[in-house]
Sequence to fold (227 residues):
Amino acid sequence: EVQLEQSGAEVKKPGESLRISCKDSGHDFAKFWIGWVRQVPGKGLEWMGLTYFGGSDTRYSPSFQGQVTISNDKSISTAFLQWSSLKASDTAMYYCARQKDFYIHSWGQGTLVTVSS
Amino acid sequence: QSALTQPPSASGSPGQSVTISCTGTTSDVGGYNAVSWYQQHPGKAPKLIIYEVTKRPSGVPDRVSGSKSGNTASLTVSGLQAEDEAEYYCFSYTVNDNWVFGGGTKLTVL
Fold:
């Protein structure tokens, strides 16, 4: 079974930087895109963007363009979601997700990011 | 881009059928056969239950079905069971190589 293993929960202060990760243990990971999905507590799912292991292509939702950076390191089959300056409104659960053929095949367990002074 | 429109809530008694709608535009739902549906129980990651409008992944019971007409996709859950109580989200490919979720529908089994 494909496993997406996400890094652990984070507690940060406003203005701090952060990078969370998602390791794809599937043998065919290079065929897939890894997307990131935000879920603010008590709210719905929001698609943020995705990155392609097979190349350097990255796409962003207009809502998140310029707010975060999505990247990957194919050599370790790991995708990253990065903030340069966190805000309290970034507090949320962040899921990584395997995307291909226009849908999400599988999900990581989620990384809870809490931003509070 | 705006989220796809779903009713905030839906409900039905055990054994009944419930249909959840997901309305978009010709730039997303109506323009592509690329609508999928996800079930999320509280505190859990979402799970794929329908892809490419009508297809079911292995392990999803055939009492779960999907359809689309124009700019509106629908998810139908027949023979409601207690375990079906969850949040349901639609998801669609859109123009400019983007994707968008619906706002989510909380399904209550009465």
About this structure: The first strand of chain A starts at residue 4 and ends at 6. The two ends of chain A are 40 Å apart (CA to CA). Chain A has no helices and eleven strands.
